[in-house]
Amino acid sequence: MTNTGGAIYRAECAIVGLHAANAQLQTYLIYGGEPPEGTFDQLSPGDAFQHCFWSGSIALDLGPARAEKWTNWHEAKTGNPPDQKLYDLSSNRRGREIAESLQWDPLGHAKLIDRCQGMAGQLSSGKE
Question: Does the pTM of the predicted model rise above 0.70?
Answer without folding.
Answer: yes
